[in-house]
Design a protein that fits this description.
The chain is globular, with a radius of gyration of 23 Å. By secondary structure, it is of the alpha/beta class. Helix content is 53%, strand content 12%. The protein folds into two domains: 46 residues; 252 residues, NAD(P)-binding Rossmann-like Domain (Rossmann fold). It is built from 13 helices and seven strands. Bound molecules: NADP nicotinamide-adenine-dinucleotide phosphate.
């Protein structure tokens, strides 16, 4: 028991209650209550001995993560030259492209999306910012695995990618084919969200990671998640898809660091882009909405420091972490959630 932190001691105590906890499913309500008391007693005994409560310790770790206290490097030197951004024709994707367009180190921007007009418009705006840039645009759906693989492999032969931003994503409103049938399209919408926000992210980053690893190439991989990732119980399929992105990104960061592949997860809250227009039309208000430029400035700061998690505005992720760690029943009123 020597040198154990409060958390480790609790886990060790829980280990001694393992058999009782596992068997509790077959036990009476009275016996289950006794088991609950034993667990709580173990936690409170240890909490009295340790500085701060265990909940506080866990929260502290999450917030440390958001602040980048353990997981950022202000002296990080890597700056990408060829950047591939999905959903680069609008909102956060185009905003990020513009911020990199004015960097001396940036030579090539590769932008994909499904709307040709928006791709052309963004390309013109980028060339105005920097006429020397090579800009590749492609009408490409992230859900199309084969087309994504072919495009990435072909483009990389001419313009070796060293940063990929898996940004393309949709909410329930974008998944819906028709505004009038909003509710009746439930299954279709869930599939569209998961295929775009989860499978689309894999279709984007896995071919690039394959190239990075095969060529032993240094590179940066950015996954756009959401503050909703910390509170999926509030944000249904969208929140669940973003939780996947956040957790998978954190896993990749851990396993790829030794290969000089830097993985960053971004968790924005409400940012003023097209994604929220349908919700605003429905009367929803976003009092803490962040201007796009503000979001991009914060995002660049985090990416330039190679932070594990880049959250903006940070408060919202903290708020969601706290809400996400208390039981569902005490958080919401009936009907108070999105799908
Ligand atoms: N804005 C926010 O409040 C907020 C908050 C948290 C997280 N996020 C995340 O940030 C990312 C960017 O969103 P945004 O706010 O910039 O919204 P946006 O302006 O609607 O941009 C979404 C981009 O994704 C592209 N896209 C959507 N589905 C696609 C598909 N199947 N294939 C290829 N491209 C596709 C869109 O282009 P096309 O329509 O031309 O395909 C568009 O460029 C998303 O992952 C979103 O979930 C946004």
């Amino acid at each position: 028991m020597k040198n154990l932190t409060g958390m480790e001691e609790i886990l060790s105590q829980l280990q001694s209650l393992k058999g009782e906890l596992n068997a509790s499913i077959f036990k009476s309500i009275e016996e289950k209550k006794k088991t609950l008391e034993k667990v709580c007693k173990a936690v409170s005994t240890i909490e009295q001995k340790s500085e701060g409560t265990i909940y506080e310790k866990i929260l502290r770790q999450y917030i440390k993560d958001l602040l980048g206290l353990d997981d950022s490097n202000p002296k990080f030197k890597f700056r990408p030259s060829t950047i591939f951004i999905t959903g680069g024709n609008g909102g956060i994707g185009a905003g990020l492209a513009k911020s990199y367009a004015v960097e001396k180190t940036t030579k090539t921007l590769i932008l994909t999306g499904r709307n040709e007009k928006k791709l052309e418009k963004t390309k013109k705006e980028l060339l105005k910012l920097n006429g020397k840039l090579i800009i590749i645009t492609k009408n490409l759906n992230v859900r199309n695995k084969e087309a994504m693989l072919n495009f990435i492999n072909e483009t990389d032969k001419k313009y070796p990618i060293d940063m990929v931003v898996a940004n393309a994503g949709i909410g329930f409103a974008q998944a819906s084919n028709s505004k009038t049938k909003f509710k009746s399209e439930f299954v279709h919408c869930q599939e569209a969200i998961l295929e775009t926000n989860m499978v689309g992210v894999l279709n984007t980053i896995l071919p690039v990671l394959d190239i990075f690893k095969t060529n032993k190439r240094q590179g940066q991989v950015v996954l756009i998640s959401s503050s909703a990732a910390y509170l999926p119980v509030r944000y249904g399929t969208y929140g669940a898809s973003k939780t996947f992105v956040k957790n998978y990104g954190k896993f990749l960061r851990r396993v790829l660091a030794k290969e000089s592949i830097y993985v960053n997860v971004v968790t924005p809250d409400c940012i003023d882009t097209d994604i929220s227009i349908p919700y605003k039309k429905m009367g929803m208000v976003f009092p803490d909405e962040l201007e796009l430029d503000d979001c991009i400035e914060r995002m660049r700061k985090g990416l330039d420091e190679n932070r594990g998690v880049v959250a903006m505005p940070m408060w919202q992720s903290v708020d969601n972490i706290i809400k996400g760690s208390i039981p569902v029943k005490s958080q919401f009123k009936e009907g108070d959630f999105h799908v």
